[in-house]
Amino acid sequence: MSDAANETKPLGWAVIGTGWMTRTHMVRAINKASGSKVVAVLSSSQERAEEFAKEFDIPNAYSSLDDLVADPAVDVVFVSSTNELHKPQTLAAASAGKHVLCEKPLSTNIQDGLDIVEACRESGVVLGTNHYRRLKTTIQTVRRLIAEGAIGRPILARATSTGWLSEEQQTWRLTSVEAGGGVVLDIGVHDADLLRYLLDDEVDEVSAATGHSGLLKGELEDYAVTTLRFRNGTIATSTVSFCTPGSIGAIEVMGSEGTIFARDLLADKLGGEIYLRRGGLDLEKVDIGSEEEHYAEAVHQFNEAVRGNGAPAVTGEDGVQSLAVAIAALRSAERGTVVKLSEVLTESALVAS
């Protein structure tokens, strides 16, 4: 493991992949967060890597994964390649003693996700899953209100993440089953993570219906509704789409003593509003205070975990659990039946890993 984890100098981050997430959010977030700096980039094309490095003032550009993980300036690797490459790239980084923040979904199947968790554990490196939406101040506030009992016991919940897939993202997401294309593994897995986090509970069973508007190719779904039954009895729904212009990001949690409404929770923007309704028709607006930039906060918490101060905001184990929900949803839609999470992933398998 790199000695930089125990030093005060900034952690050197490498980014794998030069696509939308890296370009739009993560390079800036890594450089903005306290104690980190992007020092290397990897692309399948050396020319593209060098162009990206020049654009973002990154010292080192690579097209070889072996060369990247051998770079002594690299302490942390952000894996943001297509999803089927997450496992081999994460395992190579962990084997070289590099900590890994992996873009969601952690992998395209459960076994690969478990292998990633185990490899990082055996190598003694920190592993995080980049479910950055947890770090939005609005989401943190909703979780706090639920934990404080503001609405009593959660009974029903609803997450909505719908919109039109931007032109720059209309690449492998449109066509590649192998890479995890489709809205459920791309966005539904985010909703699964948010609902697990807000309710502080795990999913017991899932049922889902998916649809094809024609935006995505073949049998890849571009809209879906999933029902999740949690262990403590809460029933939640997740509504996601790539094909409905006019983005909506919203959370509602209905409890035994009131309801929380949170709206305008767009993943790529700050802001959002939260309202409470308890015992009447009046809405009480909740003051969320100043909002932190959630991408940079995710990086900051990861840096702190590398330095031995707590855990990442979202662990590798979290990534596997939310992936299991998404896979169960796809399986349910294909079969037309309810799917138990125990069929997809047993707790003993996760603990054993």
From TrEMBL:
It holds the Pfam family GFO_IDH_MocA. Keywords: NAD, Oxidoreductase. Its EC number is 1.1.1.292. The keyword Oxidoreductase applies. GO terms for molecular function: 1,5-anhydro-D-fructose reductase (1,5-anhydro-D-mannitol-forming) activity; nucleotide binding. Residues 12-131 form the Gfo/Idh/MocA-like oxidoreductase N-terminal domain. The keyword Oxidoreductase applies. Residues 139-260 form the GFO/IDH/MocA-like oxidoreductase domain. This is 1,5-anhydro-D-fructose reductase. The gene is afr_5.
